[in-house]
Specification:
Number of domains of chain A: 2
Transmembrane segments (chain B): 22-42, 54-75, 96-125, 137-156
Protein name (chain B): Tripartite tricarboxylate transporter TctB family protein
CATH superfamily of the largest domain in chain A: Bordetella uptake gene, domain 1
Shape of chain A: globular
Number of strands of chain B: 0
CATH topology of the largest domain in chain A: D-Maltodextrin-Binding Protein, domain 2
Chains: A alpha/beta (330), B mainly alpha (169), C mainly alpha (499)
InterPro entries (chain B): DUF1468
Helix content of chain B: 55-70%
Radius of gyration of chain A: 20 Å
Largest sheet of chain A: 9 strands, mixed
Largest interface: B-C, 91 and 76 residues
Number of helices of chain A: 11
Shape of chain B: flat
Number of domains of chain B: 2
Domain DUF1468 (chain B): 24-161
Keywords (chain B): Membrane, Transmembrane, Transmembrane helix
Strand content of chain A: 15-25%
Order of helices and strands of chain A: HEHEHEHEHEHEHEHEEHHH
Oligomer: heterotrimer
Structural class of chain A: alpha/beta
Chain lengths: 330, 169, 499
Amino acid sequence: MHRRIPLATLACLSMLTLAACGGGDADPAAYPEDDITLVVPFAAGGPTDTVTRLIAEPMAEELGAEIIVQNVEGAGGTVAAGQVAEADGNGYEVLIHHIGMSTAPGLYPDLAYDPLEDFKTVGLVTDVPMTIVARKDFEPENLEELATYVEENADTVTLANAGVGAASQLCGLLIEQQLGVDLTEVPYDGTGPALTDLVGGQVDFMCDQTTNTAAQIQSGDIKAYAVTTPEPIEALPDLPTTADEGWTDVEVGVWHGLYVPAETPDEIVEKLTGALEVALQDQNVIDSMADLGTTPAPAEDVTPDAHTAKLQEQIDLWTPIIEESGVTGG
Amino acid sequence: MSTESGVAHGAGHRPAPFRPDLYAGAAFIVLGLAFAIAGSRYDVGSALRMGSGYVPLALGALLAVLGLLVVAMAFRGGDPAIRDVQREPVPWRRGGLLVGAVMFFGFFVSGLGLAPTLFVTTFIAALAGHGTSPLKAALTSAGITALCLVVFVALLRLRLPLLGEWLGG
Amino acid sequence: MDGILLGLETALQPSNILICLLGVTLGTAVGVLPGIGPTATVALLLPITFEFDAVASLIMLAGIYYGAQYGGSTTAILLNLPGESSSVVTALDGHQMARQGRAGPALATAALGSFFAGTVGTIVLAAFAPPLAQLALKFGPADYFAVVVLGLIASIALASGSTVKALAMIVLGLLLGTIGQDQFTGVPRFTFGVRELYEGLDFVSLAVGLFGLAEIIRNLESRHSASIVTRKVEGLWLKKDDFRRITKPVLRGTALGSVLGVLPGGGHVLASFTSYSVEKNLSKDPKKFGTGVIEGVAAPESANNAAAQTSFIPLLSLGLPAHPVMALLVGAFIIQGITPGPNVINDEPELVWGLIASMWVGNLLLVMLNLPLIGIWVKMLAVPYEVMFPAIIAFASIGCYSLNLNAWDVFAIAGAGVVGYFLIRWGCEAAPLLLGFVLGPLLEENLRRAMIISRGDPTVFATRPISASLLALAAVIIVIAVLPSVRRKREVVFQGEDD
């Protein structure tokens, strides 16, 4: 509180940037010689943005360069990914993206880039668990009752989500697949309004990231049925997992990873991976992620290989589910 | 454009339609139909499951109807709020320069970079002024460009490159 | 009341006052730039706040938000360039006052009205947060649809000319609001394959084009536009008569804003538009609205600021962000290691009450900062118009472009400028269009959502008490608004026109 304002503060004003200019043929060994732009495909203040800003600081420290977070919103994150795919592969423009990277090919048939071909993966960042939650006076008390209730009242039950391509919509698709029913989906413009209507009892249930739901679950404003990870989570230790309850189809997490354009030299990717690894061991990052109900990715996943495998596996998983459901991003 | 005003005929004749209302009404009809037709090409759906086209189709049709009412107003003496207002001719050249200046900025800022684009944009815009000579416009635009660079680049640190890729920046 | 004392203790620490002052100063300085609205300002300045601890950073962020809002009103009054939806209304009469040499009183009214409303809003926030939050929760999609309809109908009063044209402009605005990706189906509408248009048109571009560019073209019609001010500047401060005239509008605006601000999404926009309509309808001389009456500045500015305070209620008592700026604040909370939620007020009383108290301190600092600045702002208006308008074009282009680095945001200025120029020339006004544009997505979303939840049964709008009473009110207003114009039309049917 009594700290003076360092000059670096003013430098932080520089949130907006174009592709780092020039330097296309710079020496990879000398990297980084300039500020690095970290492109976030979603709004400032959202969960992905928060995760990004958490890791940006320790990464910048490790690399010895400034990292500028730039929010490029639009079309489920494909505008930002398209921008980075076309950027110079010199390591000065890096993309963070979540599960949406793997669902985009299914959602957007005319996608201008290929998630596997046009990028090099840097490493996984975190895998945010999701929770199945309902308005507090909704009849079912657990997943089993929910399944029966949904079967009997398939016409009237409403399932909220945060819009096309949002993690909550994807999780909803898995729930429908698990139960073998077609539910009435009520889309919202983001998680905030959806959660407001869930707390207000206007809609019945939804599935969303712990980042958004943990506080309301703890306060009892909404009730939670299960968490979608294989293991229970620290923030909500009493909550069973979907696997425990036999909902094996509904295992999903909002995984995040870092990407650079495909032509980026391996030497630069290594440096970025190294910095990410250090950042994810930072105590402040671990603590802040715990508050959000998540944990940093384990060290063995913070590698390009593990990341690429995850991306491939997820594209193979989601593309048929999305095509079958008829959902489209345009 | 003096042709916009209707010509008053002698007593006993039906007065000519009031041109501004005719134009405004026509614009609403055209825009309304455009949205309605384009909207109807999306899935319209039903009242329960409204498709993407439902709302544009309904609103487009409503706009076209309102446009018809405005046209009707033109034949009934015109909108009293502007009927008696003296209108100056449309400044086609000056307006064109201003619009051109803004479009130039949009097209070239990423390629040329901030400094040259800004200078040309403000120069074109300044030429639209009354009695502004090219020299005066150049001086004005140089001053404004310098001011903007100080505010946005030096103070706010917006990281727009001063020179774009085309200029080797 | 213990809470507010604890809060004042926190907020009045010298270091926190300093932080707050820094926030409002930076917010004003950036917010006053044409083409940069409050959301952009907060997003732009957000990273600075990460340098401080939790309490200080949130105090600063709130300060930036108010400062930006006030800076936006200043630009709206001086240059007719509204930076966000709620200052569109301020521009209507505020800019006309500026042209008549009364920029000083207009700015002073905005500052004083905002301060009063901010004070009341803070008290409302401290005293009634839980019940108001419950009220916000009672609003389902059908009710929200009804409140948007009511707001749109009430805004017909914004127009000083023909009712039919105002309605048409609202509908055109609603249609422009449908451009972009349909969030229900994901289908991109009217985007012609341009991915940059998936998020829709940018409000600031549209406002800058319709108000700023269109007005510049209009000013260039004739030779005699040496500067924005057309009359001698007559005094910077309010006259006795002005004080008398603004008292009631400020009180009514504050009350309306305090209630509407709690609604998620468009509460503060509805507040400023509705309060203007209320004043116009209560006025003995409604025709004068739009020509530079001080009531037309006092009411919306108060409503807007009161709403800005109470829009914190859903965030602080439920942990639910009501609009984009609040979402940014949630991000700031989380980065400081605090999870905003229903329990935050119990877990972190010093932080929450400190934030609430500092809102009031921030408003006080804003008045003290801005009243002396009025003289400088007014002097700026004397810059020759031949220099002023290219500068406006330059600032507006950079401002709109810098936020998303999207050239389409710049093209939208040009398009809106051309369309706006002709529509205004033909007697159609821009303000109803902008309101339609802002509320359009809310209208469509909530209509579709309500119909999905009710299984396609339209009676839901009549059976829910909130929505039924709001829609009934809208029907009454439309009857009152249409009746006199029907009568007037009959009178003019056979009159010749003499343009």
